[in-house]
């Protein structure tokens, strides 16, 4: 046997020399043979399999794969040098089955079968068996009994622990001694300095010297005789030793050496469960040469990853390693040392010399963390007569600048670890070979590799479920971490409920998702939490479990079981190569929610079923794909929960895989019954997967008594319903049982009926509750439901119109104990509907309540939509006014408020104080001036006992700018009036003598006040008559040539004031040319400062003077000059201009009447024309209705909003129209959706609000609101500009 490993290694070496020629499908050299055994005996099936590549071997029982971990101790699977075996311990009658062993590799798959028949002595009535049947080899039947068994044990690191059992073997023959084996976690233990085993002839003892956490696990004693074996198992817990420094972490565990080469070893370990109260900062790795006692630290700084490459080893020497953890408190004890490992080339290689070696092959990055990167490659095919060494080179991605990493000493191993790389940067690597003949060509470079941890810390485990077991233990189950890579296991912690003092339940990670926590205090309540661990670190804690009292469970601690089989398999849809299946849920789910289903299928050829095949690896799909067209199939389904995968269902009927082409729909599925009462129930279903040629447009429900014949089906509804639920009224005697089915219809007709429901008894069960509507004193409306028969896993599920409300926007769901309520946030007509509540894991506890305008609960409806919560009445809403000096006053007046009333002023989510006159109810707040930071929404919040109210004022955009401008003007006016100033500014009048008199009225003049006149910037001193009397200044101009710009300046030591009059020819002053639509056509117009007959006006179209006709006219109304185009056509498009000339100078104004401008104007003309023509027939009513009912944006939106980053923006506008318009918000011409950042509301059919929470620069852009109803469409636009302040503004004073 000692030569077997050498022979096997020699075979493997020759296989690698010429892999392609040796590859072949697996073959059975020796097939397993069938056995017939007695109960309680063990049986071993073994076979020998050849094949290359080495095949993967799986054992099956009745076509179900055998998992040894599912039943520890029951099955043992071994593979050694092409010999494979399955050992079945303590056979019982259920082990009678056909067993299959399947071998598969890349070339193919083959199987062999063997049967095991287990006979019971109780059934062999015709055979007189002796009390102890003879042993085949010795003529004796040995009976083994293990007594004085060891139990769950607890130890501490560094201590010595011994435990064992007494063994009684009958008959007792001195020369026939049993074989004693000890196992830890199903791994056979061997004698070592850490493990000593002793057998005294009647007692087996195991001694663990110098305990370490690696010794924690499930220990099993196996006593083997020629007649079979007996086992006993118990768990051993190992606690951390007291730390040398208080608060230091526990020691790492399971230190191993991997991938050893000449000068390189990777050391791995597992993180400790106890971190000492502060996070672990990292780990130090120590090495020691075998035979020496001095330890050397391998890394200067702690590494966080539970894996480290140790370099710089001496070839040929052996080393052991240990690891220490460190946190801010100090260093842990060192771990147990690893097994010795030799630093040498793992394989013999032929050597050549005198030839420059070729390129290394298959270079790859096998590990990349933020601390290091590990490269691996294969030696070149042509490497000379001597051994080769390697140089490693790197370059930053995107460049071609290669740098040699190991410039001084080449490495000997085809592995290399690179340190000191910049985290977050991307690198490429390549390797060169070298020997005495020279340095070879570089290998192909690797792909770009970013420096950083590729392996993520696992996510926190899911729901934790504790289950009673014994008086001192609890079984803890949990949901595995999602998408966890290279998972090492889990740590479980416990705490007495309410204390928040956590203790580890295990110090060695457990692989499964279930663990028995021992050493608990009887009758004490505990909570549990779980963490996952891999090489990258330890995950966050799971949610705490529900509290559980420690005491023995009824029946000795029954754990969660896997579900019973599903049943009632049907086909919902069939295409050429796939089918969609449906089935009914298991009658017993095993005490834990079902997480999914697994589907198996088999072909049926000539009525003979074939082998079962797995249809889905993950338990998520109901569609079976990759089937063969026109082939017959059977299916079986297995349900899975936390406890595992249940046994499969019975095989289904035989279904043919062929494309469905029928015109009518397939059957509905997933029928559910809720709200069962003595005279009614609610039936729910899902739409057919196969729709037929046309969409489904309705459903019919059928009913019959459960025991009635098939012909007794009768319809419930004469008219098809388009919903997927229906309340069915049953007019029979209470207690009758019924079944239901549903049929779907489309335009082609009614399709196949669904499978019937389970029988439903028409009875109102004791304790059945209904939903109750409640309105409290504050006007808060809620729907309330109570369930008296809750279980630990029960949940309240609320639905509206039988669609589950997971995150309702208009309601708040609250559950406390056995009561749950759904609270309306802002009740409105949108909340009408059917509200139902269903309680899971009960006997069908459910109820519903209908809120409709036709319901009998008119009082509740009126309260729901017109809530009477206490409101503080207001005489005036919040308003703003300007005071002297530009001060701004915000105020409102309450009709009635007590002396205990409270008022808060909120501006952009900040609150300030204000003045409150409790006698008059006037509430006011003053601001000395308005700055940019004061733009936003102002809100006064009032509270008087339970009564509340608030009033808001939005000052944003043009509204705010206008108020700010007026405030600044008032402030300047007050400052101006402190000195000499104008009461009436400079103007002119024409006297009867045809002179022009300039005059102004002044005030606050004193003796030293001066009035200076200027014309065109020059002071007037001669030839003009100045006059000043009774506060009026005048200046007469006698000649027309004196036209110009006149200015008067008043000044003294208190200040000065200026007034200016432009007394030049103002005929050229006019507004821009604009376009207006009328019921007759299109009008172009402009306004001039003044108009007289001397002003010459010319209109142009496409740079040519317009010849006026009956269709095209011009005219003057006051200061308005207009051009009317009646019944416009395409020829009227183009550029229009108006020219003014007064004999001295001219002015030209233009407008483009083309493109969109013409289209919009023409469309408005047609609309107005239609209104007028219709009104001639129907009177003015149509015009009034059109303008009244058309969708409009009534106002409230600014043109431009400038706001500082980080603030909140709120805009509100009024919407008008009947019917109520549809409201759409746009950003940069793209439709917006309401979310946490953009809050879009349309309330009461009148008020549309737009809110941006915490504005940032990406919110800058053009926004629009679009309102639309059947009478028309209108939009409002505004622009938001977000700026970054140069510095953080201080808190403004209020």
Automatic annotation (TrEMBL):
It is found in: Cytoplasm. Residues 346-357 have a biased composition (Basic and acidic residues). Residues 336-357 are annotated as: Disordered. Residues 251-346, 359-453, 460-553, 565-660, 667-767 form the Fibronectin type-III domain. The keyword Repeat applies. Pfam families: fn3, I-set. Its main location: cytoplasm. Residues 26-117, 157-237, 766-852, 980-1064, 1203-1281 form the Ig-like domain. PROSITE patterns: FN3, IG_LIKE, IG_MHC. It comes from the Eukaryota. InterPro entries: FN3_dom, FN3_sf, Ig-like_dom, Ig-like_dom_sf, Ig-like_fold, Ig/MHC_CS, Ig_I-set, Ig_sub. CDD domains: FN3, Ig, IgI_titin_I1-like. One of its GO terms (cellular component) is M band. This is Myomesin 1b. The gene is LOC109048089.
């Amino acid at each position: 046997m000692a030569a077997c490993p050498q022979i096997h290694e020699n075979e493997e070496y020759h296989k690698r020399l010429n892999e392609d020629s040796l590859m072949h499908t697996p073959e059975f050299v020796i097939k397993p043979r069938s056995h017939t055994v007695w109960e309680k005996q063990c049986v071993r099936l073994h076979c020998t399999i050849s094949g290359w590549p080495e095949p993967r071997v799986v054992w099956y029982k009745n076509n179900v794969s055998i998992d040894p971990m599912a039943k520890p101790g029951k099955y043992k699977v071994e593979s050694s040098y092409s010999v494979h075996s399955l050992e079945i311990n303590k056979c019982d009658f259920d082990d009678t089955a056909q067993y299959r062993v399947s071998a598969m590799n890349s070339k193919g798959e083959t199987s062999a079968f063997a049967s095991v028949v287990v006979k019971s002595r109780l059934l062999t009535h015709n055979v007189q068996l002796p009390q102890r049947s003879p042993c085949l080899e010795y003529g004796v039947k040995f009976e083994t009994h293990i007594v004085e068994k060891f139990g769950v044990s607890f130890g501490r690191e560094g201590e010595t622990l011994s435990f064992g059992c007494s063994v009684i073997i009958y008959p007792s023959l001195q020369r026939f001694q049993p074989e004693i084996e000890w196992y830890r976690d199903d791994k056979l233990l061997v004698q070592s300095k850490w493990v000593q085993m002793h057998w005294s002839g009647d007692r087996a003892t195991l001694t663990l010297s110098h305990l370490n956490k690696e010794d924690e696990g499930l220990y099993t004693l196996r006593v083997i005789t020629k007649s079979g074996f007996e086992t006993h198992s118990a768990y051993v817990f190992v606690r951390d030793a007291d730390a040398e420094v208080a608060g230091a972490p526990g020691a790492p565990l399971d230190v191993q050496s991997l991938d050893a080469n000449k000068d390189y070893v990777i050391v791995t370990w597992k993180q400790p469960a106890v971190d000492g109260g502060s996070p672990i900062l990292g780990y130090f790795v120590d090495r020691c040469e075998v035979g020496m006692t001095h330890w050397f630290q391998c890394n200067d700084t702690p590494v966080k990853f539970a894996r480290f490459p140790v370099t710089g080893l001496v070839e040929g020497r052996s080393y052991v390693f240990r690891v220490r953890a460190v946190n801010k408190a100090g260093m842990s004890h060192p771990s147990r040392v690893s097994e010795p490992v030799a630093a040498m080339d793992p394989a013999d290689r032929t050597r050549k010399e005198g030839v420059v070696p070729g390129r290394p092959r298959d270079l790859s990055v096998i590990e990349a963390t933020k601390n290091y990167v590990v490269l691996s490659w294969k030696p070149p095919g042509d490497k000379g007569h001597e051994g080769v060494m390697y140089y490693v080179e790197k370059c930053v991605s995107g460049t071609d600048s290669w740098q040699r990493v190991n410039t001084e000493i080449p490495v000997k191993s085809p592995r290399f670890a690179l340190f000191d790389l910049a985290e977050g940067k991307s690198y490429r690597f390549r390797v060169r070979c070298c020997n005495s003949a020279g340095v070879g060509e570089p290998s192909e470079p690797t792909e770009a590799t970013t420096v950083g941890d590729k392996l993520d810390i696992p996510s926190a485990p899911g729901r934790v479920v504790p289950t009673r077991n014994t008086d001192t233990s609890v079984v803890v189950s949990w949901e595995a971490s999602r998408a966890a890579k290279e998972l090492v296991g889990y740590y479980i912690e416990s705490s007495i409920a309410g204390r928040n003092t956590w203790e580890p339940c295990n110090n060695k990670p457990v692989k499964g998702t279930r663990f028995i926590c021992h050493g608990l205090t009887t009758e004490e309540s505990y909570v549990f939490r779980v963490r996952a661990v891999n090489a990258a670190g330890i995950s966050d804690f799971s949610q705490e479990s529900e509290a559980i009292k420690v005491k023995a469970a009824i029946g000795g601690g029954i754990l969660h079981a896997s579900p019973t089989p599903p049943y009632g398999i049907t086909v919902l849809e069939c295409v050429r190569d796939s089918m969609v299946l449906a089935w009914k849920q298991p009658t017993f789910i095993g005490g834990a929610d079902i997480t999914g289903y697994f589907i198996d299928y088999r072909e049926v050829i000539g009525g003979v079923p074939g082998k079962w095949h797995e249809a889905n690896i993950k338990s998520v799909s109901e569609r079976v794909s990759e089937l063969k067209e026109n082939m017959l199939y059977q299916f079986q389904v297995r349900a899975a929960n936390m406890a595992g995968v249940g046994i499969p269902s019975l095989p289904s009927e035989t279904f043919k895989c062929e494309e469905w082409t029928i015109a009518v729909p397939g059957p509905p599925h997933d029928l559910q019954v809720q709200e069962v009462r003595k005279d009614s129930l609610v039936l729910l279903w899902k739409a057919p997967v196969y729709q037929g040629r046309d969409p489904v447009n309705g459903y019919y429900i059928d009913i019959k008594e459960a025991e009635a014949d098939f012909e007794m089906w009768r319809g419930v509804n004469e008219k098809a319903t388009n919903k997927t639920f229906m309340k069915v009224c049953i007019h029979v005697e209470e207690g009758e049982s019924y079944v239901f089915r549903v049929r779907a219809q489309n335009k082609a007709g009614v399709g196949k009926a669904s499978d019937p429901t389970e029988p439903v008894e028409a009875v109102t069960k004791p304790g059945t509750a209904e939903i109750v509507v409640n309105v409290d004193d504050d006007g808060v409306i809620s729907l309330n439901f109570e369930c008296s028969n809750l279980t630990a896993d029960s949940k309240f599920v609320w639905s509206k119109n039988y669609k589950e409300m997971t995150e309702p926007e208009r309601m708040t769901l609250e559950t406390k104990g056995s009561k749950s309520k759904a609270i309306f946030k802002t009740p409105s007509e949108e909340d009408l509907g059917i509200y139902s509540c269903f309680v899971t894991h009960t006997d069908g506890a459910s109820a519903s309540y209908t809120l409709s305008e036709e319901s009998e609960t008119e009082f509740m409806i009126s309260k729901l939509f017109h809530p009477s919560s206490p409101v503080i009445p207001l005489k005036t809403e919040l308003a703003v006014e300007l005071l002297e000096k530009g001060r701004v006053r915000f105020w409102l007046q309450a009709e009635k408020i007590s002396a205990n009333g409270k008022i808060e002023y909120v501006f952009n989510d900040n609150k300030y104080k204000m003045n409150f006159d409790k006698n008059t109810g006037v509430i006011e707040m003053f601001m000395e001036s308005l700055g940019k930071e004061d733009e936003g929404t102002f809100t006064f919040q009032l509270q008087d006992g339970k009564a509340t109210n608030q009033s808001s004022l939005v000052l944003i955009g043009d509204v705010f700018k206008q108020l700010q401008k007026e405030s600044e003007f008032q402030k300047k006016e007050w400052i101006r009036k402190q000195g000499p100033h104008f009461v009436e500014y400079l103007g002119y009048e024409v006297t009867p003598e045809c002179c022009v008199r300039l005059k102004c009225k002044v005030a606050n003049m004193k003796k030293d006040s001066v009035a200076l006149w200027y014309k065109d910037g020059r002071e007037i001193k001669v030839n003009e008559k100045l006059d000043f009397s009774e506060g009026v200044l005048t200046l007469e101009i006698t000649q027309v040539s004196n036209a110009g710009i006149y200015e008067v300046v008043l000044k003294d030591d208190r200040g000065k004031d200026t007034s200016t009059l432009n007394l030049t020819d103002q005929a050229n002053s006019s507004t821009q040319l604009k376009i207006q639509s009328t019921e007759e056509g299109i009008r172009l117009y402009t306004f001039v400062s003044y108009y007289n007959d001397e002003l010459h006006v010319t209109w142009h179209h496409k740079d040519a003077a317009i010849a006026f006709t009956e269709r095209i006219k011009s005219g003057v109304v006051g200061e308005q000059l207009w051009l009317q185009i009646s019944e416009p056509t395409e020829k009227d498009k183009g550029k229009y201009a108006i020219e003014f000339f007064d004999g001295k100078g001219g002015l030209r104004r233009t407008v483009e009447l083309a493109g969109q401008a013409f289209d919009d104007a023409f469309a408005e003309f047609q609309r107005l024309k239609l209104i007028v023509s219709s009104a001639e027939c129907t009177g003015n009513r149509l015009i009034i209705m059109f303008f009244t009912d058309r969708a409009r944006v009534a106002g409230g939106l600014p043109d431009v909003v400038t706001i500082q980053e980080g603030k909140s923006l709120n805009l509100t506008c009024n919407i008008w129209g009947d019917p109520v318009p549809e409201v759409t918000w746009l950003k940069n011409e793209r439709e917006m959706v309401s979310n946490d950042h953009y809050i879009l509301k349309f309330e009461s059919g009148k008020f549309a609000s737009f809110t941006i929470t915490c504005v940032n620069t990406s919110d800058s852009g053009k926004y629009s609101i679009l309102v639309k109803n059947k009478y028309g469409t209108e939009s409002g636009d505004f622009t938001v500009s977000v700026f970054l302040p140069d510095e953080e503004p201080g808190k403004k004073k209020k």
